[in-house]
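Sequence dictates fold. Next comes a concrete instance:
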Amino acid sequence: MTEAESFYGLQPRWLGLDRFYKVYVTPRLMSAARVAGQAYDPQAVEAMARAGYGPAAAMQKRAEREKMYSTVDPTTKRFLDLDEHNFQLGASEVAGVTFSGRKSWWTGGLPNQGVLTIHKSDGSTLRLILVGDQDIGRIQVLLKQAGFSLHSN
């Protein structure tokens, strides 16, 4: 199976642990797989260890989850069934997607490229911090080609 184009987003959560997603983009659909929590990359793990929280196996677990998802079609119900926090959003369920290139402080100074906010048709929103060194232009092209309406702020 050829893996769909994707990007990474950290969902900040006030009342619970952050969720780190690999977001697959296919025609008219965004499918997000939870691949990690707050310990999503080596820098985050190192920062957490300095603060006394040491999820030593976090990177191995993330690698295993990403490998598992690479064998599953992200457009299927099976994809959703692999984790209760996975989700799929069709273009018809999304009123628009806004990009802010302003860095988020939520990551504690770790690199990020800004915030992607998904405005759902039901009026709710979902924020994803574009952590690490990701190309916002490429993500915008992926989403636009998939049929999502984009806005900048």
